[in-house]
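Thread: iron/sulfur cluster complex, take 2
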Amino acid sequence: MAQPQMRRAIESGVPDNQPYLHPLLKKNYGNWRYHDRPRPGVLHHVAHSGDEVWTVRAGTQRQMDVATIRRLCDIADQYAEGHVRFTIRSNIEFMVSSFAKVAPLVAELERSGFPVGGTGNSVSMIAHTQGWLHCDIPGTDASGVVKALMDELYEEFRREDMPNRVHLSTSCCEINCGGQADIAIIVQHTKPPKINHDLVANVCERPAVVARCPVAAIRPAMVNGKPSLEIDEKKCMCCGACYPPCPPMQINDPENTKLAIWVGGKNSNARAKPTFMKMVAAGIPNNPPRWPEVSEVVKKILYTYKADARPWERLSDWVERIGWPRFFEKTDLPFTKYLIDDWRGARANLNASTHIRF
Ligand code: SF4
Ligand code: SF4
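Output below.
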């Protein structure tokens, strides 16, 4: 009798990278002697076998059209050896087996508008969430903020003259996929959601929305004879978590959705332990298409850090050494009661929640 077939696992995660590796990377996988950087944007790896590989890193705009991808692939075929890979910050890397190929590859990339850099103590490419392009709940276009900002920090990507590596990130809502960074730009809602009561009964699972609120500010209610919801605005902390499961609870608003800047986050534990970011500027206008007010604050923080930090201090190490009062003095940012220790009220808030109790 035929045996039942084993069901094959359905894998939808990251594919195995081995078939796509440059042949020299595959041959020497995990067997490198040392690496160095001959110039910003170029890495040089030497294997125990004696093989050498040069990697040229270029910035991309991340959200790419087909023509741009074809152009990058043509460069890989003509000036590199037909293999590329992307870094987690959306840079593209080309691998070559001879130093003689590096200069023509760099020249062609720069001629085509792709800056070469993003290595060592540079401002690396800004990590961003998807914004209006992919997601259904953003309050701003994170990728647009990145484009506007990187146009201004272009030279800092191509050079390696920051005290240490600087990571920036942008996030287009307050609650989901935003990243830790030395300087992060994050959406900040400042008013509770406005409820469209005519739609709630048709669109929302009311118990699911009630359960979603981290501070138990939402209650079921009858409004105009229809089942709807109401918000205790004294409790609401304007996080926006109720909007994804219930779009009639609209929280995005051209006037009251702002941007905030957070600093000092890092995951690395190379010199000091990992740190969480703290908010240092709030209520910045969400002002497309160039967000000039955001650029002004970010550049102020970045260049004060550059001028004042000691070699190899990450932004959080620098703040730790000089202290928060001097951070605000040196950057000339106004200090208000809403900044830095925004977690102060959390214990009371969480104690009021239906789901989390201490
Ligand atoms: S940060 Fe929020 S709005 Fe932006 S892509 Fe992630 S989930 Fe969507
Ligand atoms: S989920 Fe957030 S925005 Fe919605 S009511 Fe609760 S605290 Fe306010």
